[in-house]
Structure formats: C-alpha cells, structure tokens
Amino acid sequence: MTAKSQVKWTDDARTALRAGEGFRLADLDPESTPGYAGDKKDGAVDLAAGLAQLADLQERLFAASHAGPGRDAVLLVLQAMDSAGKGGIVRHVVGGVDPQGVELAAFKAPTEEERAHDFLWRIEQRVPRPGYIGVFDRSHYEDVLIGRVRELAPPEEIERRYSAIVDFERRLVEGGTRIVKVMLHISYDEQGGRLMERLDRADKHWKYNPGDVDERALWPAYQEAYQTVIERTSTDVAPWHVVPANRKWYARLAVQALLLETLEDIDPRWPAADFDVEAEKARLRATIR
Amino acid sequence: MTAKSQVKWTDDARTALRAGEGFRLADLDPESTPGYAGDKKDGAVDLAAGLAQLADLQERLFAASHAGPGRDAVLLVLQAMDSAGKGGIVRHVVGGVDPQGVELAAFKAPTEEERAHDFLWRIEQRVPRPGYIGVFDRSHYEDVLIGRVRELAPPEEIERRYSAIVDFERRLVEGGTRIVKVMLHISYDEQGGRLMERLDRADKHWKYNPGDVDERALWPAYQEAYQTVIERTSTDVAPWHVVPANRKWYARLAVQALLLETLEDIDPRWPAADFDVEAEKARLRATIR
C-alpha cells in the first residue's frame, strides 16, 4: 500500500491548483480545499505519510546527480501576502526533508549592490544545483509585485520583466530544473486576524513590522498585481499554482502534494555503481580483521 | 515537567564528553555511552523530546537577533572518519530545527581558487550570522587531518595551522558565536561493517567511493592526527567533545544534548517590540471590517 492510496486527494494537486487560461484570482475562495476530500484530521495523517515519501524521493534525486548522470533539480517558488504561511510551509513541508539536500534562499529587499545589477542577477546565484530541492522564500516575482505596486521601477521596465522572467524560467527548465510556482492565497480578513494575533502575543511581536499595515492598505493593488503576474508568467513549462491558504493544514498538504507529484514525474533512480562492486568487496574484506 | 526531567542523562553531556587535559582518544570505548544511563529505547524517547526543545530554543535565538540586539550564534563543527554518522546527525538532529534558522556548509576537497587562499578563507565565508545555527560537515580541521596524513602541506605549515585555528576560533567566540566541536568516534571494526553494508546494498552504492578503503588503510595515522588536533586545539573557549559513535542512537542524542546545553546557556529571550504595540493595534483595527 503506497502513501498515495491512503490519501484523500480526488484529483492531482497540480491539476486542481493550476492557474490556467482564464484564471481569476478574485474567484478563488481562500477557504476552499481544491482536489482534497478530507478534513483537517485526514490532512494531518496524509501530511505525515507524505513526509516519508518526500524524504525518500529527495534522497534518490540527490543520489542520482551525485553519483550518477542525473541533472534534475526542483525549485519551489513561494509567493504570498504577509502572514499567508510561507514560513510554515518551509518549516512543516520542506523541514521534513534532509537539510543536506535543500538549498533555501530568502529574498529580502535588494541591497545596493543587487539593485545595481539586473533584477535576475541575485536570483541566478541561488538556483539549485542538480540533485537539490531549491526553495525561494519570495523571489524575482517581488520585482513585478512590490516593484509595480510601489512604483519602484517605471512601467516599461515592469513590462520588460515579465518577458525576462518567462525566458529565464524556460532556460532553467531546459537545464533540468522543475519549477513549482506557488502563490499562497489568503483573504483580507484572514490576514487581519493573523496580524492581530502577532500583536496580541509577546512571543510573536518580533514577527510584526509596522510596515505590514502599510502594505495591507494596498491589498487591492497587490491582488491586481498577482493577477497580472499569473496571466503573464504562467507558462506550460512553469505554471503557477494558487493554493487557498486560509486553512494552514490544507496549504501545507497541497504544497507537499505538488512537490511529490513533481518528484514522481522525475522518478529518480539509485545510480549504478561506477566501480567494480565485487572487487571493492574483496579489497575491503582484506582490511577486516 | 520539562524535557530535562524526563531524560536519562546522569551528567551534563558537555562535561561527560569534553576532551580535556590528558585526554587519550585510544582509551575511549566507541561502544560506550558516557553520561547516559538509558538504552536505545530511552534514547528514542529523549531524542524526540529534545527535538521540540531544540526547535523552541532555535526560534528564540533567531528572534533575539532578528528583531532584537542579540549577537549570539551557534556553530556545530562535525569531524569524523568515513561512515561515522555525520550525515545522520544532520538529518536526525539538525533536521528537527526550522531550516530557516540553519546554515549548513559541507566542505569538500578545496577548489583551485580555495587552495590559492589561506586555508581559513573559505571557512570564514561560511560562519553563521547572528541568530543562526551553523553546521560544518567537515571543516578547517581537514587541513590538519588529511593535510597532515597525506602530507598535503609541509610540517611547518601544519604546525602554523594549529595556532591559526586557535586564534580564529577565539575571534569567533569573542564575536558571539558558541562553537560546539564534535568528533564522532567509531572503531575500526565498526567502519569495516558499515562500508561493507554500503557495498551489499544497491541503494547504498552511491555513498561508496573506492577511495574510502585507501583512507581506511591509514587509520592509525588518522587516529594520531585526531589526537594531536585535540591536544593542540581543545581550548577553554572552544573545547573538543569526542562522542562515541558505534551506537548511532547515542551519538545523535549526545550531539542534540550538546546543542541543547549550549542554547540553554545563551538563554535567548523573545525581544521586546521596538514599536508601540497599542498604537499598532489601533492602526490595524482600523483596517479590519
């Protein structure tokens, strides 16, 4: 019995969550659980089962490129409004994988040096090597999200970036990287509640920033910017997946499912030995008392 | 009831495992479990309890430096003969911590560029920032271990390096980094069995390298080199801990205990808000429908 047969998915997560032709962010209910027929309790069981499966697939991916000819890598791109749960995804989904096989990059506001280069310069430096699962906590998409909403660049530069992103991602995919783009989608009300919780608890104050309320005031503009990002950059080789995230348990399960399906597609195999196994056994045996 | 009160430690791990004055590696039994009165089953319970504790302390460490004045960091240095279990420590001990708070560096044979610099050049680049737990899988100690055994540098250069390491580590400690140096200590026979297992299982072949047997042939020279490393670089501010590692469950538990004790020493606190909490609540409330 595989983990797959136990889970309450009614559809592939990649199918259920893909932002295809005609997708309207405004029409997606952040409370919904597309493709999944279970409740929170089922979700906990399935998440635990998936962790073991993900750990196994990751180790194969790593082995295939470290001792074999494999060139495959996976890049998970996480984008979301504040408090939507990116950190929880990293902790509870990515955290179940051997840290030796993960390359995590958290992109903050660019430094002076980074701003002096093209916006993709700092991104290129952090793409995962073959065999690794890369995770971008925020990404090059900030440059067409906050970049657009806060007018950090002129409109023609923002326009240029959509095409540059499409080309850049196609190049990564051609090199063997599977890109899993995820927007965690919470509602305006849910964000209000989560930010208030940070203010209510002394052990959460450090996660709060007065700038969070300023950004929140621009909510409609950000939703528009996400809609445009999806329209302009959801391609066949690197589609967007929009994950309803008001229910944290569902968002974590869904991102795990997206990763599992991607790794199952790669189907990484243990590489064959590039040495003579019997000869090595004999050499080793000679050293054993 | 704290996790501490449940565990079967009879002594602080740092006391039980410290390689102090007069320490003789050859006298330490790799099968032993210093400071711990439990068996494998107890060890599993205590490891699980420790994971939650470690995760909590790590989050506080991170918070204290990200939103407060904290300058503390932790650096775990892992050294060992092949197959001693460094990978398992990273997976099962470090892997229980939020990946967002960990900086892992695996040092392989130096590149041409790295060899052109002083041996500490590449090390300096990977020391953890404040708030992070850094993990070195191999380290600058390779330069006085394989460097000495394989005569990759002249004896006077190896001599110079011991003092350079002591100075370097003192500087890190003065900057706020607690260094936890761990040698995982397995027996020659145990290594033979573990390498043979890699050859016996097709899914482990990728972990085997014919060079492993060549290194194994130099076992006595490596043991001597470790003894010298400990004598020359086990200082008050950055002592060595030698962890008997024939029993994997003990080694993992012991390294976890070393990290827990180090973090408890730091005792990181949630930082106070650097904004007016009530004023922010009012601003946020005004945005909530």
- The CATH superfamily of chain A is known as P-loop containing nucleotide triphosphate hydrolases
Rounded mean pLDDT of chain A is: 96
Order of helices and strands of chain A: HHHEHEHHEHHEHHHEHH
Shape of chain A: globular
Total of DSSP H or I helical runs spanning 4+ residues of chain A = 13
- Give the spatial strand order of the biggest sheet of chain A: 2-3-1-4-5
Fraction in helix of chain A:
40-55%
Largest sheet of chain A, described in full?
5 strands, parallel
How does the helix and strand content of chain A classify structurally?
Answer: alpha/beta
Strand portion of chain A, in percent? 5-15%
- Most extensive interface between two protein chains, with residue counts: A-B, 48 and 47 residues
CATH class term of chain A = Alpha Beta
Give the second-level CATH assignment, the architecture of chain A: 3-Layer(aba) Sandwich
What multimeric state do the chains show? homodimer
N- and C-termini, Cα separation of chain A: 42 Å
Q: Would you count the extended β strands of chain A for me?
A: 5
Could you name the CATH topology of chain A? Rossmann fold
Task: Describe this entry's structure for a reader.
- The structure is a homodimer of 289-residue chains.
- Chain A has 289 residues and is an alpha/beta fold.
- Chain A has one domain: P-loop containing nucleotide triphosphate hydrolases (Rossmann fold, 3-Layer(aba) Sandwich).
- Helix content of chain A is 49%, strand content 11%.
- Chain A has a five-stranded parallel beta sheet, with helices on both faces.
- In chain A, helix 3 runs parallel beside helix 12, helix 7 packs antiparallel against helix 8 and helix 7 packs antiparallel against helix 11.
- The longest helix of chain A is centred in the N-terminal third of the chain and has 27 residues.
- The model of chain A has no long low-confidence stretch (mean pLDDT 96).
- At the A-B interface, helix 4, strand 2, helix 9 and helix 13 of A face helix 4, strand 2, helix 9 and helix 13 of B.
- Chains A, B: Keywords: Kinase, Transferase.
